[in-house]
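Milestone 3.1: sequence recovery, worked example.
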């Protein structure tokens, strides 16, 4: 199962300072880690980005996803990173960060390629360590790899083919992301979508657990329908499809007819669902980082 979250390049469009924009992106990064997001995709919302555009958003998120012991080597000094001191610690589960776990996964960076299929890797220990590259895997200088550490004294570690702990940051068009083979159920979030109810939640989370999901969000004062040029009336007019798939019963009341077979690729924006995950919201607008926590909490239920 792969969980992908898509946010627009205009996600910090309302912030006036680099510090405020960085703080907001830190909350988005925290949501991604809390709910084990695999990929955080920044898609373009050209012409609406404000002072801090897609390059800034992706850079700060990539920095946040980089373990502290690698940040100086990977990033050096960049103007986009002037306020990264306000980023919250992510403390990714399973990395051994802040714990006495004897075995953990860590992200490392290859500093030197040597003979006999061995490389030197900086993975936050006192010195870079020499490790054997697994068969059918290549590692070049500067590449990030996942290192599994089973003992620190003496050091016992190995490079694995697992993806690095935490989330990866990508920049891609939203349409391209929705077409990825592991996109799973494609969800567009909007206050104009169908309200997520108890009846819809169970079958939906079962589908997400089985196939994964791609969940897209809008920007401040600029919802996802507006970004995509989709009429809000068209977003709301999805009752038949959502009821058939997410209520647990097909349109004729036969539960066997429910499920992925009833998904419609004809919904606006290329989504399988347009959902309002905060029905009856008590504020005029919900911030993107707030919507992430609310929506991913629902998707995380089992």
């Amino acid at each position: 199962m792969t969980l992908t979250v898509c946010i627009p390049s205009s996600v910090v469009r309302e912030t006036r300072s680099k510090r405020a924009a960085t703080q907001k992106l830190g909350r988005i990064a925290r949501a991604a880690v809390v709910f084990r997001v695999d990929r955080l995709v920044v898609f373009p919302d050209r012409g609406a980005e404000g002072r801090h555009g897609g390059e800034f958003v992706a850079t700060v998120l990539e920095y946040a996803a980089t373990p502290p012991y690698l940040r100086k080597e990977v990033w050096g000094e960049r103007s986009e990173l002037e306020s990264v001191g306000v980023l919250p610690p992510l403390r990714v589960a399973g990395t051994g960060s802040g714990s006495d776990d004897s075995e953990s996964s860590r992200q490392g960076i290859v500093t030197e390629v040597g003979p006999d299929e061995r490389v030197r890797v900086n993975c936050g220990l006192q010195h870079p360590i020499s490790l054997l590259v697994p068969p059918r895997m290549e590692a070049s200088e500067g590449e990030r790899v996942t290192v599994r550490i089973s003992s620190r004294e003496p050091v016992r570690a190995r490079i694995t083919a697992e993806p690095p702990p935490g989330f990866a940051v990508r920049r891609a068009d939203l349409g391209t992301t929705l077409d990825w083979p592991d996109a799973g159920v494609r969800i567009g979030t909007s206050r104009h979508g169908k309200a997520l109810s108890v009846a819809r939640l169970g079958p939906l989370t079962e589908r997400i657990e089985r196939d994964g999901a791609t969940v897209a969000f809008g920007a401040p004062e600029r919802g996802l329908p507006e970004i995509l040029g989709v009429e809000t009336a068209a977003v709301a007019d999805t009752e038949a499809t959502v009821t058939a798939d997410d209520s647990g019963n097909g349109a004729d009341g036969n539960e066997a007819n429910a499920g992925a077979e009833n998904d419609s690729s004809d919904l606006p924006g290329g989504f399988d669902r347009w959902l309002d995950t905060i029905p009856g919201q008590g504020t005029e607008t919900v911030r993107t980082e707030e919507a992430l926590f609310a929506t991913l909490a629902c998707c995380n239920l089992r």
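The chain has two domains: 3-89+167-299, 104-160. Residues 104-160 form a domain with the OB fold (Dihydrolipoamide Acetyltransferase, E2P) fold (CATH 2.40.50.140).
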